[in-house]
Amino acid sequence: MVPSPQEIKQFQNTKTVGIIGLGDMGLLYAQRFSQAGWHVVGCDREESFEQFRDLYGDQFDVVRNGHYVSRVSDYIIYSVEAENIEKIVSIYGPSTKVGSIVGGQTSCKSPEIAAFEKYLPNDVEIISVHSLHGPKVDTTGQPLVIIKHRASDESLKFVESIMSCLHSKHVYLTYQEHDRITADTQAVTHAAFLSMGLAWHSCHQYPWETPRWTGGLENAKINISLRIYSNKYHVYAGLAITNPSAHSQINQYARSCEELFTLMIQSRKQELIDRVMRAKQKVFGHLRKNHRLLLDDDLLEQYSLSNYPPGKRQPNSQLSLLAIVDSWSYLGIVPYDHIICSTPLFRIFLGVTEYLFCTPGLLEESLNVAVDNTDFRQDDLNFVMAAKHWSIIVGYGDYNLYKTRFEETQKYFEHMYGEANKVGNEMIKTILKRVKEREGDEQEEEEQVSK
Ligand SMILES: NC(=O)C1=CN([C@@H]2O[C@H](COP(=O)(O)OP(=O)(O)OC[C@H]3O[C@@H](n4cnc5c(N)ncnc54)[C@H](OP(=O)(O)O)[C@@H]3O)[C@@H](O)[C@H]2O)C=CC1
Ligand SMILES: O=C(O)C(=O)Cc1ccc(O)cc1
């Protein structure tokens, strides 16, 4: 039940919200909460205190460190790098005010909850959150996971009151459910787009500079890949490395890439077709014949980074998309089951994949090209190696190697981020609008049927 405006006002009159970590997400929360009328106290690293106080001290209270946040706040959110959550909670956790509630924004909840259980005093309650979108996306209507781990119903109402100003869609899960779902959705989505970027880098290509990557599907791949590389490495490293379920998903993705590619280069066309069609049946078989597609090529055509006039599309094997459906099929994942708990990037990845698999003739065209045309073999080979590379780094849990590889490719694409983010933001806005319209249409249809 959404708390009433009176209930929210009552909480606002007596309670304080604390944020530890004023990076992209922490700052978003601190600004939105304080604009909505909450008393907010925040901090970043102690050595940055003066800088943050000068920048944001007129918007909310900036204090020296997490001890000062913890002592005065009734709900404290740790919005820090996943890799450091245990260390940071171990420092500030014991200072938490008696009877208050603590949560975190990290993308994988098992280590976060373990740190809370280990270091928070027993009288402190635990309700964690996770906004399933990046800091530049409009929070309205996006999923916001709320995990009531150790707390009363009244405390949940307080946290819901704070979050209500984001106008997000609250999704209630346990931390185990959260980690299983986000491994299926976020981790493997990032692995695919990270591999595209690394493969282009390895082949010394800027994909918008050649007519080989034209058309809507390619625009979406390029824009999302650059969007990920324009971000901080730790967001992607943290959510993949700290989530054990993510390792097997990313590993399966790399294996699917390699096995499908092997069928292509060995010209085992019928085996390739049989395998992909079996996967298609498992992942998309439940869709109605006249099912409306999430996305289409025409819609995505306009979001190009290239100066080339939209010419004739040059078909390729679409290995990255064949492999995700193959992985979903192997792992028994039906991606539509996760839509209520999905990020914008996952919805776009699903939309693009659905377009390839459910548009008459398109999948067949890709399978033909995959075996009969060698023009993209080097790109596909580099893609297979890139997927393997990310899978190995994540499997070993090597943050340093992750950072090095990520930042090398990040640097390669650096000059394009301004343009890519501008075009990407418009693309994402249009896609999300389309997804919302389709959800509305489907709800209407269901209501008609049940009448
Ligand atoms: N960005 C995204 O799209 C999303 C991220 N998340 C998750 O939210 C969390 C925060 O991410 P994001 O805001 O993007 O990352 P940022 O790196 O922008 O923010 C983290 C902030 O915490 C600061 N910090 C580090 N140690 C301390 C400390 N001891 N005390 C106070 N502050 C400290 C960091 O400082 P410094 O930089 O100096 O280390 C940094 O400013 C991560 O766990 C991420 O996985 C969740 C949803 C979306
Ligand atoms: O949409 C995506 O997948 C993003 O890349 C943004 C993102 C990153 C980390 C999260 O925990 C949630 C969202």
From TrEMBL:
Ranges where the Prephenate/arogenate dehydrogenase domain occurs: 15-294
Task: From the UniProt annotation, give the residues forming the signal peptide.
Answer: none
Q: Has the keyword NADP been applied to this entry?
A: yes
Under the heading Pfam families, the entry gives:
F420_oxidored
Q: Which reaction does it catalyse?
A: prephenate + NADP(+) = 3-(4-hydroxyphenyl)pyruvate + CO2 + NADPH
Q: In which pathway does it act?
A: Amino-acid biosynthesis; L-tyrosine biosynthesis; (4-hydroxyphenyl)pyruvate from prephenate (NADP(+) route): step 1/1
Q: SUPFAM superfamilies from the xrefs? A: 6-phosphogluconate dehydrogenase C-terminal domain-like, NAD(P)-binding Rossmann-fold domains
Which keywords annotate this record?
Amino-acid biosynthesis, Aromatic amino acid biosynthesis, NADP, Oxidoreductase, Tyrosine biosynthesis
Q: What class of enzyme is it?
A: oxidoreductase
Q: What is its EC number?
A: 1.3.1.13
> Is Aminoacyl-tRNA synthetase there in the keyword field?
no
One Gene Ontology MF term: prephenate dehydrogenase (NAD+) activity
> Which GO biological-process labels does this protein carry?
tyrosine biosynthetic process
Q: Which family does it belong to?
A: Belongs to the prephenate/arogenate dehydrogenase family.
Q: What is this protein called?
A: Prephenate dehydrogenase [NADP(+)]
Species name: Brettanomyces naardenensis
